[in-house]
Records
---
Amino acid sequence: MLSATLFFSPSKNVGSTLKELGFLFVKNEYNYYLKDKKLIEATIDSSNCSLKLLFSSGLNLEEYTMIHTIILCIMKKMNAKIDDNDSLLGYTSNGEGAHIVSNWQNWYGFLQDAKLSSLEGKKVRVMDENDKELASGMFVGYKADELTSSIIECTLITLFGERTYKGNKLSIQPTNEW
């Protein structure tokens, strides 16, 4: 299991913050579920003003992204500090360790770039942020937002020639067709 510990001021009501974010209280701990799968187990230590978050080391990128987002929300709502040294997810392109919050953007961008580089010349679908298909065709290239690493532009070769699609959070998915 990977873990991260948040430290907050004694005046903060951690339980209500967790419930606001969708955590369920079960047997002295708060759990966050995605569908029927427990994604995060949270335990409050009032004496140390800390919240320990446990999550699996065998999740997919989408699940880690959700955990990352939830942790950022907790940190913002509670003005909390984090120790995420026990949540090493991988390494960035320059060999630095990437954790669930620390160095996240560099790691996520590195993974996204590797994934999309492998799709060049392959048939893909471009989806908007609502999961609506915008187009399909041969993948040529993309542009990502520098701050969030979200794909904001994608170029394909379609039946109608080269086309560029723009949006806030595009996703590029292989079709596994030729």
---
Amino acid sequence: MQAWPDGGRVDAWSQLEVVVREAGMKVLVGAQITCDEQDDDRDWRLVLQLLQILGRQHVMGIAIGNEMELLQFKANISQDCIQRMWHGGYFLRKLSERAADLDALDGFGDVPLTSVFGGYILSGSPFVDTPGAMVQTFFKEAIKKFGTRWVFTINVYPYFAPNNALDPGTTDQCSASLETDWCFKKGCNLPDTVALMRKKTTMLVGRDSTLWVGETGWSSPQASTLTGAMTGCPDFSSQNSLSDATACKLQSKSSQTETELLTV
């Protein structure tokens, strides 16, 4: 979750505080990293305010940046920004600055640190490390500085999986892809992606590390960013598929222990 913008922020924070405290929840709080340092710092000041409202006992971790590997593909992002972000060290510098602020904030000196990434980072060996997305270099520096305080976090969206395909011999059916996108056993999209992420983090670090799944989900109506064969399958983005995907996730959560779900 991220801090709210100015409009309605105070009321939203008050309601959030009530829900979090009454339910005994822990939340992952996100802080933006963009091409605008002034706005990033303003956002961070709001994050610090929110952290003090919630209290350390209700904060699972702090995520600095979200899917930064995709920044290079966004409209109106200059190459100067991308160069400054990675090769110029802006991302790492901001991570270090945020950590120092947390160390100075009462009770937050041990809060786990992370940055949320998407499946694109898995295209490298072990992680993507190109001029436009120096993720592997970033991970190495973060681990060197923060050790076991650093947590790996990945968003997994089977809805956008590149291997989703139409059923053989059909032009508009995708039942097989829907099955592998929804299930939670070996051979299914989400657990297999998490298992691959686990394998790659171990390759990088040489030991087990804490790994979180940041986001997952489904879309109905069809997402504007969906491409490939699934755009031709009406069932894929139907309301029924959204309901079925949600039901499968809830059923898996209730029928399996946390250890079974996370042992990958």
---
Amino acid sequence: MRLHIPPVAFLGDGRHVMFTSRHIYILAAALIHLMLGAYVTPVPARAGRVTQMIGSTLLVAAAVLLMAAFVYEPVAARGRTLVSALGLFALFGGAIIHVLAALLSRPAEPTPSVEADL
């Protein structure tokens, strides 16, 4: 953003906010990738691995879309377009799919038996 001509600090409020908000979207995508890299382990079941792959694919697509929105939307002087909206939806969907894959892969906890208490 330092190399932008004119400097981003001298842009109007609307364009400055667009650059800043799109920058935060990219940061959110990067942080989700960092968290997944630190905590996610492949699920042993094939269905769980496929679910994780779908979530990861959505997250990579989200990062690409959000970077494209960062370049395209402020220059085009347009508000939110389909590019950033799809990027945000893909980011949310990919994160939720990873959470579901983790929850579904956990072993079931044994339920307490009534007979054991007697």
